[in-house]
Write a structure and sequence with these properties.
The chain is α+β, with helices and mostly antiparallel strands. It has 3 domains: about 140 residues, no CATH class; about 80 residues, 3-Layer(aba) Sandwich (Rossmann fold), CATH 3.40.50; about 90 residues, Sandwich (Immunoglobulin-like). The protein is about 20% helix and about 35% strand. The radius of gyration is 22 Å and the shape is globular.
């Protein structure tokens, strides 16, 4: 069939978890995304909260079965030779919706074609087809090498140290933060410092979050402990004792992908507006968190829409960002947090 050759690869990806403004939770998922012609395939789907079947938290046997399926070593799971490319991040039910495609071989090549959104056994290409995506033709050697590398370990790539060490003075806040992180799939431990912790234990952490009451001498001591253990860990300076805000900061810290593999790359809040940069068309949500004089938290949803690639300046409700306030910008796979600035800009990047 007529399909241009494009490159095929794989890259780590994530679905950012979080505590939502309505009190709900969004689960964190690490997965392997498909890189087509040098760009994550998921980025071509502008408003889709989904993960590939190659997720890090599935049992090894299921992960292996998914890889073998993409290599056409087993029968297609759906009629007409269709395979799930992206599915619901919360469950595996097709009724929630999935992006599917026909995968077939032609000589030594592999072809992905007829992408569609599917909610039952049969796809309706006319009604739900992604007419602007594909078909893609991959060289067999490159395709098999990329997927075959995943089979060498017979399991999904491990989540990149998805555990956080929380260090702060407000025990109640730390306990609520740890509970929220565990709920969305991120391990969390609470400690006063890292003194005397064995190196092998420190290597389990991907990030360390400091509360605002922790002074620089204590922070420096923790940094030295991790440096001494040879651990490259992200350090988070908590903006405020607001659990959803801290979760957003930690999610960003755990995201170690290069900027070109993220959708949301910049957030600046100043002069009553948010300056945002996205690398591909995607849905962006802005939420404001404000502390009043009694340290009560006020939450306001500010923006929820699809933005095209590039930089955008979004005016914000002045009441929502007055005083000590913060803004969280979220896409399905990236999240940034920034304090509001009444003067020099403060950034999240």
């Amino acid at each position: 069939m007529s399909a241009a050759y494009v490159s095929f690869g794989l890259a780590p990806a994530m679905r950012a978890g979080g505590v939502l403004a309505d009190g709900g939770y969004q689960v964190h998922r690490d997965f392997v995304d498909f890189v087509v012609d040098g760009r994550p395939l998921l980025f071509q789907l502008s408003d889709l909260d989904a993960v590939s079947p190659l997720a890090s938290d599935v049992p090894p046997a299921i992960f292996t079965a998914q890889v073998r399926s993409l290599l056409l070593k087993t029968e297609a799971p759906l009629p007409e030779g269709r395979y799930v490319i992206y599915g619901c991040p919360e469950c595996e039910d097709l009724a929630c919706g999935a992006v599917t495609a026909v995968i077939e071989s032609e000589g030594d090549d592999y072809i992905w074609r007829d992408f569609a959104w599917q909610t039952d056994e049969n796809a309706d290409l006319e009604l739900n087809g992604y007419h602007g995506i594909g078909p893609f033709r991959f060289h067999g050697t490159e395709y098999r090498a990329a997927l075959g590398a995943l089979l060498d370990g017979a399991e999904a790539p491990a989540a990149s140290r998805r555990r956080v060490l929380l260090i702060g003075a407000r025990v109640a806040v730390l306990a609520k933060l740890a509970a929220a992180l565990r709920t969305i799939g991120i391990g969390a431990d609470i400690a006063h410092d890292a003194t005397g912790v064995p190196a092998e234990e420190l290597r389990a952490y991907g990030a360390v979050a400091f509360g605002r009451a922790i002074g620089e001498p204590e922070r420096a001591a923790v940094r030295r402990a991790f440096e001494g253990a040879g651990v490259d860990v992200a350090f988070v300076d908590g903006l405020a004792p607001i659990v959803p805000l801290l979760v957003a900061q930690i999610e960003h810290a755990l995201d170690r992908r290069p900027p070109d593999q993220r959708r949301l790359t910049r957030l600046t809040v100043t002069d009553g507006a948010a300056d945002i940069e996205v690398t591909s068309a995607c849905r962006v949500r802005l939420t404001a968190y404000r502390l009043d004089r009694l340290y009560r938290t006020h939450t306001r949803e500010l923006f929820d829409d699809v933005l095209e690639p590039g930089r955008h300046r979004i005016p914000l409700d002045a009441k929502a960002v007055k005083g000590e306030s913060f803004v969280v910008a979220r896409t399905s796979g990236s999240v940034l947090a920034a304090g509001t600035a009444h003067g020099p800009a403060r950034h999240g990047h």
